[in-house]
């Protein structure tokens, strides 16, 4: 079977070294970073990298066996010379669109882009156009979409054990670009990627982050997402980190600690012999931790091999960034309902932030 040649653009934390920050994290097993996923996966070969910081690439090269002549400070030169099959774009979102569009237009067959997708809706739309016109296989790094614990939640939802789904909750929406990109994608996925009808949102520190048409920071947000199929999602800001709840008319699933602990409750009409009215706990389903990074790469390879769609894709990635910009729009209109598809968003994320220092050892 064919081995695919992969290259990583942006070799800092998520691109290469975040595995050192995740040692002992109970819900996942390595690999997590893009580079570690390509070197672990048996049908990808990590052949090259690009970053603006040669000193970071030097360490990357040693750890991942990418020689200096295959370390590029210009990603265009890297793509043109190395002609990789797969390119990862693990920069910050401000740089993502330009790189993804260049890769799509210059022969790259598959792209694994980090979240959030883009810094503006205009960029997101240009990315959709380039990826679709060039028939590029695409996944965005919203890892929970490829995590087996979240598959388990979906399996229970789809089995009918909690009845018709009414409500989704994420307990800590977090920063609307960086963190909410994960949560919006998970909410969308749990709701079968149904279209959103409207959102209403509040960004507590939004007024200091918004500077005309620019977002100068990535502030936290909270809000309501109404889906066209009637499901309502509540994106809360509470101290309960990455936790979710799915509530149906016959039961609920609570995902504690990033779905490491699950709890299934069912209506007493389904659980005879109890004196409570309403839901009672019936099960704590368990799922062994897995590597969402490997699952995501495997999904790309399957799509390259067979022409099948990936579990994510560029339209799914666009849907979550559209929610971020719809939250901003709603906040700017005093929390008014904003209908989707979002029209006329001119807002652009433009932070003046230096890249982070990756952790080179565990
Ligand atoms: N999926 C996850 O769980 C997860 C976890 C952490 C970070 N992330 C995402 O990954 C992305 C990167 O995060 P990070 O913390 O590693 O960022 P970082 O700021 O540490 O690193 C970004 C890297 O991109 C490089 N870069 C910038 N412009 C470039 C260009 N034009 N060409 C080549 N390289 C360029 C920088 O030099 C830097 O090394 C972010 O979008 C973040 O949200 C995802």
Q: Main beta sheet, described? A: 9 strands, mixed
Q: The CATH topology of the largest domain, please? A: Dihydrodipicolinate Reductase, domain 2
Q: CATH architecture of the largest domain, please?
A: 2-Layer Sandwich
Which distinct ligands sit in these coordinates?
Answer: nicotinamide-adenine-dinucleotide
Distance between the termini: 34 Å
Mean of the pLDDT scores? Answer: 97
Helix count?
Answer: 11
Order of helices and strands: EHHEHEHEHEHEHEHEHEEEEEEEEHHEE
Secondary structure layout:
Blueprint: E1 4-9, H1 13-17, H2 34-40, E2 44-50, H3 54-64, E3 71-72, H4 75-82, E4 86-89, H5 93-105, E5 110-113, H6 121-133, E6 137-140, H7 148-159, E7 165-170, H8 180-190, E8 196-202, H9 206-209, E9 210-211, E10 214-215, E11 222-227, E12 232-235, E13 244-248, E14 251-256, E15 261-267, E16 279-283, H10 292-306, H11 314-332, E17 338-339, E18 348-349
Parallel strand pairs: 1-2, 1-4, 2-3, 4-5, 5-6, 7-12, 10-18
Antiparallel strand pairs: 7-13, 8-11, 8-17, 9-10, 11-12, 13-14, 14-15, 15-16
Helix pairs in contact: 5-6, 6-11, 8-11
The structure holds nicotinamide-adenine-dinucleotide (NAD).
């Amino acid at each position: 079977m064919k081995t695919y040649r992969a290259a990583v653009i942006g070799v800092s934390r998520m691109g290469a070294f975040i595995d050192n920050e995740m040692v002992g994290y109970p819900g996942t097993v390595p690999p997590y970073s893009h580079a570690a996923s390509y070197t672990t996966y048996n049908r990808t070969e990590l052949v090259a990298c690009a970053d603006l910081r040669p000193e970071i690439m030097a360490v990357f090269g040693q750890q991942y066996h990418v020689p200096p002549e295959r370390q590029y400070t210009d990603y265009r030169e890297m793509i043109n010379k190395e002609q990789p099959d797969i390119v990862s774009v693990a920069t910050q979102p401000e740089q993502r669109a330009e790189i993804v569009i260049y890769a799509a237009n210059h022969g790259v067959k598959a792209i694994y882009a980090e979240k959030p997708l883009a810094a503006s809706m205009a960029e997101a739309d240009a990315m959709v156009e380039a990826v679709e016109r060039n028939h590029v296989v695409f996944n965005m790094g919203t890892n929970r979409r490829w995590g087996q614990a979240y598959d388990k939640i979906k399996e229970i939802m789809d089995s009918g054990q909690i009845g018709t789904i009414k409500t989704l909750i994420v307990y800590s929406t977090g920063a609307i670009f960086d963190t909410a990109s994960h949560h919006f994608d998970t909410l969308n996925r749990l709701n079968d990627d149904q279209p959103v009808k409207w959102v209403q949102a509040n960004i507590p520190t939004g007024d200091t982050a918004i500077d005309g048409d620019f977002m100068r920071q990535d502030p936290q947000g909270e809000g309501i997402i109404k889906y066209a199929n009637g499901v309502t999602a509540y994106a809360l800001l509470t101290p309960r980190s990455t936790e979710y709840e799915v509530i149906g008319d016959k039961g609920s699933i609570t995902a504690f600690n990033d779905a490491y602990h699950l709890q299934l409750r069912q209506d007493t009409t389904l659980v005879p012999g109890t004196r409570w009215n309403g839901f009672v706990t019936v099960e704590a389903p368990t799922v062994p931790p897995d590597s969402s990074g490997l699952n995501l790469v495997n999904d790309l390879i399957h799509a390259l091999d067979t022409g099948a769609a990936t579990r994510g894709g560029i339209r799914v990635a666009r849907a979550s960034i559209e929610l971020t910009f719809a939250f901003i729009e709603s906040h700017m209109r005093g929390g008014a309902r904003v209908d989707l598809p979002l029209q006329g968003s001119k807002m652009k994320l433009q932070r003046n932030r230096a890249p982070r220092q990756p952790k080179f050892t565990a």
